[in-house]
């Protein structure tokens, strides 16, 4: 069996109505969501699918269309004629012949690596996690929702998620330091048995002059008394020294990592004890192969491994296969976009209507199907149904309409 072609499919889902939220400096709007699916074809008719980087992270410096063109031309040419089952050789060849280095290599090739694992599973007629070495049948999930709301909004959403079977819930404050603390306290009081995760990425990303280092440390100390499950991304990801200090000070877990550029950056987080839970995005950190290396390193150091899994269902499936195999997994991020099961956040059909089946969720746990490979397939005509549109997927604006940030 030989690789005949590699193709990147850029996709966009335009929200039916822009989703507008108030944050500390004005408003944030979600306009659309992007995805990049990677298709690897073989001369025996077996096709593998992966999920690549659609440029939705705020610290990427390339256009998604340029990235897709690179995969369709250079990556496809380098891999044509190679065995899709010889991943170690392919990684070596990519590093030697593609001209890509560092983040460009691991982020460009992550989706291809997932597709190669999908092919391997299909050839063996086994799920990917069984090829790796499954340690468990399911992993506990948290409802990933809650963005920039007043306290009663978070309380209502947390109750809805608990009613849907989740035993853990993640909220994303960013209204003001005092309002954020009040919201966390309100949810903790209303749902004392729910594991509560606080994602505070907006503190450094959109309002660093308000959420200063000292303010963040004070908030973190205050949340220590509320027994939250973890505090996620409270500081700029480049400020490792502060992460080391905060992690040593806090009783609650500190989690970070989704904004790191390469697997080597995750290794540095682990080696410096800059968090308790390292978060890795399978699309951006070199696919399943490199994520497994990070997971083993994290677990050997006594840290939890967590998947950043806020995007399309192909990415979520890849993350689920990893989490079923690692020694010490964290809770699994399950984004609760609006659907028939819950109101959740905003709608995102790249998660709910892109593939023939979602990863199974029941009673607060996720697993994978018994089908080979990833266990799911994109539906036909995805490019016709979700035509790609250049442009930011989300923006932050001041009350007078001035653009503060966009990604």
Structure overview:
With 407 residues, the chain is α/β, with parallel strands linked by helices. It has two domains: 3-126 and 381-406, 2-Layer Sandwich (Enolase-like, domain 1); 129-366, Enolase-like C-terminal domain (TIM Barrel). The chain contains 14 helices and 15 strands. It has helices spanning 64-79, 87-97, 102-124, 128-132, 151-163, 177-190, 202-205, 213-224, 240-249, 263-271, 287-300, 313-323, 349-352, 382-385, and strands at residues 3-23, 26-42, 48-52, 139-147, 168-172, 195-199, 230-232, 253-256, 277-280, 304-307, 332-335, 361-362, 365-366, 394-397, 403-406. Strands 4, 5, 6, 7, 8, 9, 10, 11, 12 and 13 form a ten-stranded mixed beta sheet that branches. The longest helix has 23 residues, at 102-124. It is globular, with a radius of gyration of 20 Å.
Task: Write out key terms for the chains shown.
single chain, 407 residues, alpha/beta, Enolase-like, domain 1, TIM Barrel, 2 domains, 10-stranded mixed beta sheet, 5-stranded antiparallel beta sheet, 14 helices, 15 strands, 37% helix, globular
Q: How large is the radius of gyration? A: 20 Å
| SSE pattern, N- to C-terminal | EEEHHHHEHEHEHHEHEHEHEHEHEEHEE
Number of helices: 14
Ends distance: 40 Å
Low-confidence stretches: none
What name goes with the CATH superfamily of the largest domain?
Enolase-like C-terminal domain
Please state the average pLDDT score: 94
């Amino acid at each position: 069996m030989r690789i005949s072609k590699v193709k990147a499919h850029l996709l966009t889902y335009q929200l039916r109505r822009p989703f507008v939220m108030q944050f500390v400096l004005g408003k944030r709007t979600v306009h659309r969501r992007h995805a990049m699916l990677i298709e690897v074809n073989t001369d025996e008719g077996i096709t593998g699918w992966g999920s690549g980087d659609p440029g939705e992270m705020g610290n990427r410096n390339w256009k998604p269309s340029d990235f897709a063109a690179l995969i369709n031309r250079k990556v496809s040419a380098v891999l044509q004629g190679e065995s899709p089952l010889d991943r170690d050789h392919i990684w070596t060849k990519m590093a030697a012949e593609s001209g890509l280095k560092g983040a460009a290599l691991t982020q460009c090739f992550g989706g291809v690596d997932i597709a190669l694992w999908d092919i391997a599973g299909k050839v063996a007629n086994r799920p990917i996690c069984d090829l790796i070495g499954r340690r468990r049948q399911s992993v506990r999930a948290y409802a990933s929702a809650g963005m920039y709301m007043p306290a009663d909004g978070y309380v209502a959403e947390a109750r809805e998620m608990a009613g849907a079977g989740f035993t853990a819930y993640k909220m994303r404050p960013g209204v003001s330091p005092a309002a954020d603390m009040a919201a966390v306290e309100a949810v903790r009081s209303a749902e004392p048995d729910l594991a509560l995760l606080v994602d505070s990425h907006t503190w450094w990303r959109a309002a660093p002059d308000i959420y200063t280092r000292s303010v963040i440390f004070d908030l973190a100390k205050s949340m220590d008394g509320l027994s939250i499950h973890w505090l996620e991304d409270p500081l700029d990801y480049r400020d490792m020294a502060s992460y080391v200090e905060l992690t040593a000070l806090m009783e609650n877990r500190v989690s970070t990592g989704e904004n790191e550029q390469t697997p080597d950056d995750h290794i540095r987080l682990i080696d410096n004890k800059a968090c308790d839970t390292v978060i890795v995005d399978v699309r951006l950190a070199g696919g399943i192969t490199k994520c497994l290396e990070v997971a083993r390193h994290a677990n050997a150091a006594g840290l939890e491994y967590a998947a950043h899994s806020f995007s399309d269902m192909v990415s979520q499936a890849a993350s689920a296969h990893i989490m079923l195999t690692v020694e010490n997994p964290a809770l699994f991020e399950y984004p609760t976009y609006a659907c028939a099961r819950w109101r959740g956040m905003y709608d995102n059909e790249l998660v709910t209507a892109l593939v023939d089946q979602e990863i199974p969720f029941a009673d607060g746990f996720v697993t994978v199907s018994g089908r080979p490979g990833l266990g799911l397939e994109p539906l036909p005509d995805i490019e016709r149904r979700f035509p790609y549109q250049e442009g930011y997927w989300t923006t932050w604006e001041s009350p007078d309409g001035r653009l503060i940030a966009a990604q």
